[in-house]
Amino acid sequence: MKVDLSHLNAFVAVARAKGFREGARSNGVSASSLSEAVRRLESDLGVRLLNRTTRSVAPTEAGERLLERLGSALAEVEAALDGVKGLGDRPAGTLRLNAPISAVRLVLPRVLPPFLTAYPEITVEVIAEDAFVDLLAAGCDAGIRYDERLEQDMIAAPIGPRVQRFAAAAAPAYLARRGRPIHPRDLLGHACLRGRFPGRATLAWEFERDGEILRVDPTGPLLAQLGGGADLLVDAAIAGVGVVYHFEDWLRPHFERGALEPILEDWWSRFSGPFLYYPGRRLVPAPLRAFVDFVKAMGPPT
Prior knowledge:
By secondary structure, this protein is an alpha/beta fold. It has 3 domains: 59 residues, Arc Repressor Mutant, subunit A, CATH 1.10.10.10; 118 residues, 3-Layer(aba) Sandwich (D-Maltodextrin-Binding Protein, domain 2); 110 residues, 3-Layer(aba) Sandwich (D-Maltodextrin-Binding Protein, domain 2). It is 38% helix and 24% strand. The chain is elongated and about 70 Å long. The model has no long low-confidence stretch (mean pLDDT 86).
């Protein structure tokens, strides 16, 4: 069966955007043209792909199956086209990165500005989310994650600091009022500001010293979803509400200006830094190849 490729692209755009107007806006076309393209595709296939209401658009079961298969197929087509573009004098096109909010905050500000200066013909689109995603199904070229969340068939390259630490901290006013913990177990008697990732249990706080690993599960007055709610936890700690446990690099500016004081510093746990990862069984688009080479040449921060 011959199907117009533009109709498939229209379906993917609408399904991912969950709406004709949103899909049209992100693809620079009219909503009516997308609607007509999807209608023709459904007519050619003889099956409804999208359920439409006045408020929302969602794939049917058939649409979900088609979207899942098209994600990787269209990504290969885009990669092939980007590869042709890369044969010119300069790599050009769009690089889509999926990264956790911590990497958007702590890693990409060091990497992206010089990369964009070096490659002005490349546009970088960053999707910030902490949930692990299927890169191809999400329409992304590469992602940034930590090693325990990498799939085995992915190619991974270090990006950002190679060693990071989780830090505990509190405001001077809080410590003056409640006292300074001298052992991680002391946190069980403190007001602790907790975080958790979407769909997961509240994270235990892990500490390490001289080979001893200690996990504590303190309680406190505030619980926020990590990522988007991380700054709320930090702001509450600065306001004197309680103790916060977060990336050392995230808290460092507040240490330097005295808004927060580090506590239990000799117990802060270390972990390996993030990786840039991408599928190993597909053509590598020219913008992604340029970015990988740039990250490797840049090396870790000193």
